[in-house]
Input
Amino acid sequence: YIVEPLSCEGCGYCARVCPTDAITNENQNVGQWYMSTTKVGSTMIHARLGIGADNSGKLVAKVKNEAKLIAEENHADYILVDGSPGVGCPVVSYLSGANFVVLVTEPSVSGLHDLKRVYMLVKKFNIKAGCMINKADINPQVTKAIEEFLKSENIVHISNLPYDESFTKAMTNGQTIVEYSENTLREMMIHSWNKIKQVLT
Output
């Protein structure tokens, strides 16, 4: 019997239950983690998966552990973890140990559906959550439905962000929207961050 290495997540269960001890586990490098300094001087821990490698959440856990050590060393107030969409193994790893989760959604039927699914997972972890509605002005009806869901579940409504091409232009320039924009968009992002900090204090 041949084990497909790209499909194996390395849980070790097969080796544990094999009655003849015919299976052994070997370490496999599925990715690499890195430490970088951002242009504002803060430390960023990030990782890159190998080609065809599956993200079981172990690499996420490694990145988070390294970030925690550096945060303690530098007496940092916060550790921000950027999670992937969905509700798979990596998302469970992102949520583990979190104090607050910021859910980002868009006003579409699938956006609302996915928001409900991921919030069910957040709720199981007993983590307080907030939500930002991106492109909130493109579908006011669904935006209203999302706002009603947030209210019913006691999720902090952080902000409604409008559709704006400035986000794309900022990315093209290698800037954050706060650096690029001088209009209300900048103020909205600062207000959103202040609201998150307020919840955390």
In short: Helices lie at 13-17, 58-73, 89-95, 109-124, 140-152, 166-172, 177-180, 184-200. The radius of gyration is 20 Å. Strands lie at 31-37, 43-49, 100-105, 128-133, 156-160. The chain has eight helices and five strands.
